[in-house]
């Protein structure tokens, strides 16, 4: 039998009338995408996917409420057809057969095929002949997946993994269908461990075996995921449902990812990495009776929460709140372009800025931390600080480089990283101590990220930051330290955070939410192919406020998303700093203006310092270039005052709120 991917059955449609209100709300949100967004699908196109996903959830909820034992009827093929929903519900057949035989033919007993049909809208058009599909089966202890790519240009060995030809697998084993990922959701990257593609690996927080499968005109891989692991314990019974999606990252130019295609009909904007509500569904089909048992959490979920909240802090946290540390509120730009000091004067005189987040790697020579380059770097840095002082600008030095050799590994895997940072910052603190009145704070490291630990901050970062801070304190007892909680530029790290054991710490985040709006079209404008400009225009037109990726974004929702930061500030009375935020120049003009007015209003109401990204760097982020126009290679025209620039000047002049 060939593919069983039918439309939702009449039985399933009847079930929709009995769906819980929350599921109906999720479906409605997924359908309400803005008509002006050329990259989004219409309500009519999304409707069958949302209905089928909600129907699977309703069936599963009813089964859990009923309890007892479950098995499907004798008509196995009919059940497979009935439960399948093209690109949204995959009927996962129970099979005791041990897979991982290294061949496509060994999967001939599995009839259902999931085709990766949807192109991530921020990437260039698919090359001719590129396609990918999967099959899946489940045994008592393992979820097996066969993933196949028909790809005439295979490129392995690039880092991060998604820049190689790579499958990206997503799981929501507890079927939360939440709009924010957490420890209960998983992301795995499956690719070759070597450029020749002889061995394969899986990267992610749960162990998975990956074995290559020969495929003519492409490549394939079998994946085995244990159902009893540190994060979840799952026993398959008929009707058990969980969230699932599979994407394929395609590297054709031998440099980085060019395209990304995905299976779930609900994920059109590459949202699965942080939004389980756009996953598709796997629904188990099993003929023998098994008890209905909910999926149970593994020990790592609670252990990770404990680790995230652990580490050195104050013995009396109330004392920190009573002391109310309060550096001067600053508003400025991020920049790495010095222009012999002119940039600092223009920030101050033309914009009313009083601070610059200075990218240290931009000062050079690169890498700045090597023995031969570091003395030259310190000389250049000191000169830049002198120029900023002359312009009346406070300086926020920020490290973008990891000051030691990584050898292709994540920084958390390299023993010398902490010592490298300590040497790096101690030297900077010694050189810049005479400029205490000009240094607003030292931003220890830009966007700390451990991909295998997403969606949370790397647990190693907090104590490493404490130790780097102690090294700076050996030289300077008073300078403010800026701690980005992570992960990356996000603020999930605030959720379980206890303050660092120093009263002169500023807690920092970056804000680009929602990325489908703030970064619309940016990837396509930088790709060199004949369809570049047309593809970029297809992925723009995303408006704000609106439903984006199935979620309503407006000022109220943005402020709600920042509740972990606001609550941390209110609880401990500590200063908050937004080191980066922006919106791409070619976003719809009215939407860009509204967005910037909303986010700066939020920041200013809460008394947060902020620096806009960026000043005289990439034209797409520039406030001194034209609004609302997509041009090849972001070759935008300079303007005297953009609409975005006008609203930002208002934000710079807004009264300071002291919290």
UniProtKB/TrEMBL annotation:
Signal peptide boundaries: 1-38
GO MF annotations, alphabetized: beta-glucosidase activity; carbohydrate binding
Keywords: Carbohydrate metabolism, Cellulose degradation, Glycosidase, Hydrolase, Polysaccharide degradation, Signal
Keyword Nucleotide-binding on entry: no
Example GO BP: cellulose catabolic process
This protein's GO CC annotations: cell surface; extracellular region
Residue stretches making up the Glycoside hydrolase family domain: 340-613
Stated family: Belongs to the glycosyl hydrolase 5 (cellulase A) family.
Identification of the protein by name: Cellulase family glycosylhydrolase
Source organism (scientific name): Victivallis lenta
Lineage: Bacteria, Pseudomonadati, Lentisphaerota, Lentisphaeria, Victivallales
């Amino acid at each position: 039998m060939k593919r069983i991917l039918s439309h939702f059955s009449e039985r399933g449609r009847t079930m929709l009338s009995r769906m819980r209100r929350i599921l109906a709300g999720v479906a409605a949100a997924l359908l309400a995408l803005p008509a002006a967004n050329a990259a989004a699908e219409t309500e009519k196109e999304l409707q069958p996917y949302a209905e089928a996903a909600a129907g699977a959830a309703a069936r599963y909820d009813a089964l859990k409420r009923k309890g007892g034992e479950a098995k499907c009827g004798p008509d196995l093929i009919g059940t497979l057809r009935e439960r399948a929903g093209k690109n949204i519900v995959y009927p996962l057949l129970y099979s005791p057969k041990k897979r991982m035989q290294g061949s496509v033919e060994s999967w001939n007993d599995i009839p259902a095929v999931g085709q990766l049909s949807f192109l991530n809208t921020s990437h260039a058009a698919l090359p001719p002949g590129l396609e990918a599909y999967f099959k899946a089966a489940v045994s008592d202890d393992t979820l097996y997946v066969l993933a196949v790519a028909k790809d005439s240009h295979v490129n392995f060995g690039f880092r991060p993994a998604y820049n190689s030809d790579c499958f990206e697998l997503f799981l929501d084993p507890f079927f939360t269908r939440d709009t924010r990922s957490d420890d209960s959701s998983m992301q795995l990257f499956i690719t070759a461990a070597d450029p020749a593609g002889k061995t394969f690996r899986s990267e992610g927080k749960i162990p998975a075996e990956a074995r290559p499968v020969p495929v003519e005109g492409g490549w394939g891989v079998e994946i085995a995921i244990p159902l009893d692991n540190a994060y979840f314990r799952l026993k398959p019974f008929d009707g058990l449902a969980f969230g699932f999606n599979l994407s394929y990252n395609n590297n054709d130019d031998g440099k980085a990812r060019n395209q990304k295609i995905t299976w779930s009909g609900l994920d059109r904007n590459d949202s699965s990495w942080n939004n389980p509500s756009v996953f598709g569904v796997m629904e188990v089909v099993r003929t023998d009776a098994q008890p209905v048992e909910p999926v149970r959490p593994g020990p790592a979920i609670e252990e990770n929460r404990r680790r995230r909240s652990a580490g050195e802090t104050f013995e009396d946290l109330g004392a920190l709140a009573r002391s109310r540390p309060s550096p001067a509120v600053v508003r400025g730009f991020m920049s790495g372009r010095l222009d012999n000091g002119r940039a600092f004067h223009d920030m101050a005189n033309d914009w009313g800025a009083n601070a610059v987040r200075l990218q240290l790697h931009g000062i050079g020579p690169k890498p700045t931390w090597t023995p031969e380059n570091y003395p030259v770097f310190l000389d250049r840095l000191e000169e830049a600080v002198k120029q900023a002082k002359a312009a009346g600008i406070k300086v926020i030095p920020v490290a973008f480089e990891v000051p030691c050799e990584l050898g292709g590994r994540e920084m958390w895997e390299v023993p010398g990283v902490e010592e490298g940072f300590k040497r790096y910052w101690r030297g900077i603190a010694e050189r810049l101590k005479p400029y205490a009145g000009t240094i607003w704070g030292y931003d220890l490291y830009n966007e700390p990220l451990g991909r295998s630990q997403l969606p949370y901050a790397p647990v190693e970062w907090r104590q490493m930051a404490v130790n780097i801070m102690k090294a700076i304190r050996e030289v300077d007892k008073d300078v403010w330290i800026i701690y980005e909680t992570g992960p990356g530029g996000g603020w999930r790290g605030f959720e379980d955070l206890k303050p660092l054991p120093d009263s002169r710490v500023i807690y920092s985040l970056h804000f680009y939410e929602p990325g489908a709006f703030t970064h619309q079209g940016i990837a396509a404008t930088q790709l060199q192919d004949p369809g570049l400009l047309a593809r970029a225009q297809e992925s723009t037109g995303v408006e704000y406020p609106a439903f984006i990726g199935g979620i309503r974004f407006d000022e109220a929702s943005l402020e709600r998303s920042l509740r972990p930061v606001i609550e941390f500030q209110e609880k401990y009375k500590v200063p908050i700093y937004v080191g980066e935020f922006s919106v791409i120049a070619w976003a719809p003009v009215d939407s860009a203006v509204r967005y910037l007015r909303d986010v700066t209003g939020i920041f200013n109401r809460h008394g947060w310092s902020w620096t806009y990204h960026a000043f005289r760097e990439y034209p797409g982020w520039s406030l001194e270039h034209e609004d609302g126009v997509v041009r090849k290679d972001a070759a935008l025209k300079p303007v005297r005052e953009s609409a975005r620039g006008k609203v930002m000047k208002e934000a710079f002049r807004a009264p300071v709120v002291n919290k």
